[in-house]
Amino acid sequence: MKSSPSSPLAGVLLSLLALASFALGSEEAEKAKTTVLITGANRGLGLALSKQFAAGDYHVIGTARSPGKATELKEMADEVLPLDVTSDESIQALAEALKGRTVDILVNNAGYFGPTKGLGPGREKSAQLKSLTRAEVLDCFAVNSAGPIFVTQGLLPNLLQSEHPKVVMISSRSGIINKDSASGAYGYRISKTAINRAMKIMASDKSLAKCIFVSIAPGHNQTDMGGNRPNLLDPDESMAMVKTRIEELTHQHNGRFWYYDGTELPW
Ligand SMILES: NC(=O)c1ccc[n+]([C@@H]2O[C@H](COP(=O)([O-])OP(=O)(O)OC[C@H]3O[C@@H](n4cnc5c(N)ncnc54)[C@H](OP(=O)(O)O)[C@@H]3O)[C@@H](O)[C@H]2O)c1
């Protein structure tokens, strides 16, 4: 038979102790969780991937250019922080906000297609060389190539604090050099080729050997960027698979380019 506390005061003290140790325990449990940071998490694939991680036992940090408007993200992410990947000040502010904290998984997802939305039928004309602008090329590079490079640089101290850090570049098959590219999209395609190259350099950098770097192409999905044709992938389904890919990553995968379904892609 359980012995009961000898006085009401002792009972209260015991309850307080139990509460404190429960609070400490849940604080410890929260600290022990794997932290994943996803850029461009307020809509599209970033939002769908955040949902997948939030449904698992992860601490999810989603970034958005306008956190105030990221209603759906705020409902399920543990934290929503502001980030414009083209701005050094914004990257520095993010690094400052996370100073001293561990980031185990960084998913560089934020992306920009260019002034026309997405690849696909009917969009070829606007992507021809004769109508291409310097701004389109540079803007795509700023978001899709320089963005992930400098976000990764800014969060290196946080990543290197992790026991098993992983950096994922959400890339695209449209960056594959051998792939037929009739639909143009110069800026987008070459910016995805460039981030794959940058990822490969990071993966070979001995000072970063602790970290696993990969590119993952998510497949053609129904999002603002991908369009809404019914034969496109459902972001919830493809991002469930991307989450599994990320969980499965080992150093054997380092420096390689993967499709969301687990097949390896050529450069
Ligand atoms: N959907 C596809 O079929 C497909 C196929 C291959 C690869 N991808 C890649 O998958 C990733 C996500 O694509 P998606 O389809 O989800 O695109 P999306 O629906 O157009 O969403 C793009 C996301 O990136 C953010 N973003 C854009 N510029 C940014 C900047 N300067 N700083 C921070 N965030 C910025 C957007 O934020 P705002 O809301 O503030 O604009 C938004 O959250 C991209 O890298 C894309 O290239 C997509």
Structure, described:
- The chain is built from eight helices and seven strands.
- It is 42% helix and 13% strand.
- Strand 6 (212-217), helix 8 and strand 7 form a beta-alpha-beta unit.
- It has two domains: 1-32; 34-259, Rossmann fold.
- The protein has a seven-stranded parallel beta sheet with strand order 3-2-1-4-5-6-7, sandwiched between helices.
- It is an alpha/beta fold and 267 residues long.
- The protein has helices at residues 8-32, 44-55, 71-76, 88-97, 134-154, 156-160, 186-204, 235-248, and strands at 34-38, 58-64, 79-82, 105-108, 166-170, 212-217, 256-259.
- Mean pLDDT is 90; it is low at 1-5.
- The protein binds NADP nicotinamide-adenine-dinucleotide phosphate (NAP).
- NADP nicotinamide-adenine-dinucleotide phosphate (NAP) binds next to helix 2.
Summarize the biggest pleated sheet: 7 strands, parallel
- Rg, rounded, reads 22 Å
What top-tier CATH class of the largest domain fits best? Alpha Beta
Name the bound molecules: NADP nicotinamide-adenine-dinucleotide phosphate
Q: What class, by secondary structure content?
A: alpha/beta
Strand count: 7
Low-confidence stretches: 1-5
Number of domain units? 2
Task: Identify the strand order in the major beta sheet.
Answer: 3-2-1-4-5-6-7
Average pLDDT taken over every residue: 90
Shape: globular
In what range is the share of β-strand residues? 5-15%
In whole angstroms, the N-to-C terminal distance is: 69 Å
Order of helices and strands: HEHEHEHEHHEHEHE
CATH topology name of the largest domain: Rossmann fold
Q: CATH superfamily of the largest domain, called what?
A: NAD(P)-binding Rossmann-like Domain
Number of helices: 8
GO molecular function, one term: oxidoreductase activity, acting on the CH-OH group of donors, NAD or NADP as acceptor
Pfam family, one: adh_short
Signal peptide: 1-20
Protein name: Short-chain dehydrogenase
